[in-house]
């Protein structure tokens, strides 16, 4: 911004090189003001920026240093009902205004949203995630020189659950093949773990496990008396998160 002057032309430079408008760079100049906005800044945009004002009487310049930290856009998955946090580190001249957006709509500290700041660190925390919380989150930092943004896409994944299970008590004769089969509501990013007496069951010639098209199968060939225990089947997502507990299955092996 300049004082009252006639016929002023503005020009922006980065490290001595003239800047032109592009898909990522917006320049807005009026009679006495000019602003430069980087829509999706990256670390390569860090450097010294100069604005040069010129008319028939001379010229004047002002400068500002921009430091872009971290990635400008990331994407990650979060389990339903847990907590997600976004954090941006912002540097620049004060005073600074920070605004958080979800899908281009400004959000504030209310309900499940909690916004905090500590020096140059600005955080948005979402408690008790729901499916409606997924979307694109953006942190917008502005001062008198310009604006910088950092965005992240959040995908919320619900926990898997069984839609078809089997009897909680099953019996089989010694030497027969015992087959347990169930079905879960999703198979993308899901693993199935079988547990016997508190220990994970591994695939062997006598203990075959499969998980195809949402159907989970445990097959024990040549059943023995030692197989008469409680089994737990646990579906889980490939994302760190507290998991619900699933009911035990009691298997009894009887002599012929």
From TrEMBL:
SMART domains per the UniProt record, alphabetical: IG, IGc2
InterPro entries, per the entry: Ig-like_dom (IPR007110), Ig-like_dom_sf (IPR036179), Ig-like_fold (IPR013783), Ig_I-set (IPR013098), Ig_sub (IPR003599), Ig_sub2 (IPR003598)
GO BP annotation list: cardiac muscle cell development; heart morphogenesis
Keywords, alphabetical: Immunoglobulin domain
Cross-referenced CDD domains: Ig (cd00096)
Pfam families named in the record: I-set (PF07679)
Keyword Lipid metabolism attributed: no
The protein's name in its UniProt record: Ig-like domain-containing protein
């Amino acid at each position: 911004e300049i004082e009252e002057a006639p016929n002023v032309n503005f020009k922006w430079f980065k490290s001595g090189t003239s800047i032109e408008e592009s898909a990522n760079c917006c320049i807005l100049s009026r009679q006495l003001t000019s602003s430069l906005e980087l829509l999706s800044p990256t670390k390569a945009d860090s450097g010294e920026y100069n604005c040069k004002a010129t008319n028939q009487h001379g010229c004047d310049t002002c400068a500002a240093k921009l430091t872009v930290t971290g990635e400008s856009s990331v994407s990650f998955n979060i389990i339903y009902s847990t907590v997600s946090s976004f954090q941006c580190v912002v540097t620049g001249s004060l005073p600074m205004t920070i605004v958080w957006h979800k899908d281009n709509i400004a959000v504030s500290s209310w309900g499940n949203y909690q916004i905090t700041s500590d020096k140059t660190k600005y955080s948005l925390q979402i408690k008790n995630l729901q499916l409606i919380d997924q979307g694109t989150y953006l942190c917008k930092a502005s001062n008198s020189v310009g604006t910088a943004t950092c965005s992240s896409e959040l995908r919320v994944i619900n926990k898997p659950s069984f839609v078809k299970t089997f009897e909680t008590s099953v019996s089989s004769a010694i030497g027969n093949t015992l087959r347990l089969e169930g079905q879960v509501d999703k198979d993308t990013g899901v693993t199935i773990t079988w547990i016997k007496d508190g220990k994970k069951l591994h695939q062997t010639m006598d203990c075959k496990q499969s998980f195809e098209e949402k159907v989970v199968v445990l097959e024990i060939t040549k059943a023995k008396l030692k197989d008469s225990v409680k089994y737990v089947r646990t579906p889980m997502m490939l994302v760190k998160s507290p998991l619900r507990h699933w009911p035990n299955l009691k298997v009894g092996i009887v002599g012929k």
